[in-house]
Amino acid sequence: MLEDLFSMVKVRFNADQTEDNRKKTDIPKGLLFKCPRCRNVTLADEFNKRGKVCPNCNYHSRLSAKERLDITVDRGTFREFDKNMISKNPIDFPDYEQKQIALREKTGLKDAVVTGRAKIYGKDTVIIVMDSNFMMASMGSVVGEKITRAFEYATRNKLPVIAFTASGGARMQEGIVSLMQMAKTSGAVARHSEAGQLYISVMTDPTTGGVTASFASLGDIIIAEPKVLIGFAGRRVIEGTIKQKLPDDFQSAEFMLQNGFVDMIVDRVRMKRVLSHILRMHNYTGEVQSK
Amino acid sequence: MSELTASQRLDIIRHKGRPTVNDYIPMLFDRFMEMHGDRLFGDDGAIMGGIAYFKGTPVTVIAQVKGRDLAENQKCNFGMPHPEGYRKALRLAKQAEKFHRPVICLVDTAGAFCGVDAEKRGQGEAIAKNLMEFMTLRTPIISIVLGEGGSGGALALAVCDELAMLENALYSVISPRGFASILWKDAAREREACDLMKITASDLYDLGVCDYIIPEAPGGAHNSPEQTANNISSYISKALERKLKKGLDELVNERYNKFRIVGEFNEDPRSDK
């Protein structure tokens, strides 16, 4: 009898499980969002309605460059630079061209950054937006060149630069050429800075590696979105070095704020207003003629 | 010069008798006086800096230190700098600018250290700041890769007017080991990665990153540190002669352009796809 009881429990337990499983498989992909920070699951509708922010922990999830521009610049004011730039294969990396062709088709992007000029509440600015959908926004020749040109354009035209950074780091498929983009972009930031112009860096998920170790960390003002990943070395690399697990908030925006490497954390819904205020405080008040 | 593969050169630079900056500095410079600390946090044993004479000219020397034995390696953290190392380098470089001394950087690192404290103290920011400040530093900078040039950790001392590499030195965006583990999830395929990545001095010369290749003693620097040091020394003489006669505006502009032109891309709209 006791055995029967157990077997009943077992049957029930299994029934529950299979029902659970069936429920799971019935849900079409993309209907749920599982937060990588708090692991909470929410309906994708709810998550999207909040601008891709986790309703549970306020983690600000990744946006495409287009989504970012849509919520950041005045409608119809964006003029893109260097639209048609695509990468070559400097170290003859196997299958690099094919991979790029496939990604261009899939994402509609030519590479991992979109640059241009636009207005934010009527104020002209140069804007740089990285898109992690393209090879985790790693920095190779195209990313380096477009960012450098954007800074040079801003220097010539006495414009501020706002850069939304996101990147897995240098693009190893382009070898040493990608490492040099770190020096190149940092040099362009230096010249823009020497010309007395403002650079605001907005770190979004994830800002890591060679991008953290170059232009992303060089803003006059550095803003981060809540709960995003910011760091230099990969988490697993560090865990491998120290042979222990790291706390969840390690390399978060909040960790960077606490350690003094970020000026402020700003929610996505307030971002445009905050950027606008900062521009005005630096006497960028309106239209600037391009040279 | 011999035509060795990258992985054969990896063996040479890992030879236990490979000379380090501790061997080279006394052979290259006179009256080297070491200067410690970043004035912010501490003193990093992985980067050694100071002032010295090079053939009678005062110079600032900034060098990445690898150990020759376990005790030395513990002191220098196996040549992997923390942020305070890069900040010390920047402090000494700024001092060199103030007193119109050329800066000689000796690069030899597997990479910037990856650890909890390094992250807390801003490894990324420290490297970024060096790239920006070295780019506009108004005094000549000569960088020489002696063995391993590991990624951003090496680049932080290699924004310069001329980059030279020892014949067997390697300089890469990521260590061959890291490359293999990311790409093939198998760190053991390091040698294969090494040969694929185009990281030898002659590869980098062809890619326009390395300006001069300095010959080592036959078979590798360990066979004759003195002979290798002589070659480095005659290179530094010529490099300083080339750079010291330039005006500072010209020097800094040329440095910007040296990095500005690196990158391979296509802009023809017909190549769109």
Lay out the secondary structure.
The complex is a heterodimer of chains A (291) and B (273).
Chain A: H1 2-26, E1 32-34, E2 41-43, H2 44-49, H3 65-72, E3 79-80, E4 86-87, H4 96-107, E5 113-120, E6 123-130, H5 141-156, E7 161-167, H6 175-194, E8 199-207, H7 209-212, E9 221-224, H8 235-242, H9 253-258, E10 264-265, H10 268-281
Helix pairs in contact in A: 5-6
Chain B: H1 6-13, H2 21-28, E1 30-35, E2 47-54, E3 57-64, H3 70-76, H4 83-98, E4 103-109, H5 116-120, H6 123-136, E5 141-150, H7 151-155, E6 162-166, E7 170-172, H8 176-183, H9 190-196, H10 201-206, E8 212-214, H11 225-244, H12 248-260, E9 265-266
Parallel strand pairs in B: 3-4, 4-5, 5-6, 5-7, 6-8
Antiparallel strand pairs in B: 1-2, 2-3
List keywords for this structure.
heterodimer, A: 291 residues, alpha/beta, 2-enoyl-CoA Hydratase, Chain A, domain 1, seven-stranded mixed beta sheet, two-stranded antiparallel ribbon, 10 helices, 10 strands, 41% helix, globular, B: 273 residues, eight-stranded mixed beta sheet, 12 helices, 9 strands, 19% strand
Explain the overall architecture.
The complex is a heterodimer of chains A (about 290) and B (about 270). With about 290 residues, chain A is of the alpha/beta class. Chain A is about 40% helix and about 15% strand. Chain A has 10 helices and 10 strands. Chain A has helices at about 1-25, 45-50, 65-70, 95-105, 140-155, 175-195, 210, 235-240, 255-260, 270-280; strands at about 30-35, 40-45, 80, 85, 115-120, 125-130, 160-165, 200-205, 220-225, 265. In chain A, the strands form 2 sheets. Chain A has a 7-stranded mixed sheet with strand order 3-5-6-7-8-9-10, sandwiched between helices. In chain A, strands 1-2 form a two-stranded antiparallel ribbon. In chain A, α5 runs parallel beside α6. Chain B is α/β, with parallel strands linked by helices. Chain B has one domain (about 5-255): 2-enoyl-CoA Hydratase, Chain A, domain 1 (Alpha-Beta Complex), CATH 3.90.226.10. Chain B has 12 helices and 9 strands. β4 (about 85) of chain A pairs antiparallel with β9 (about 265) of chain B, so a sheet runs across the interface.
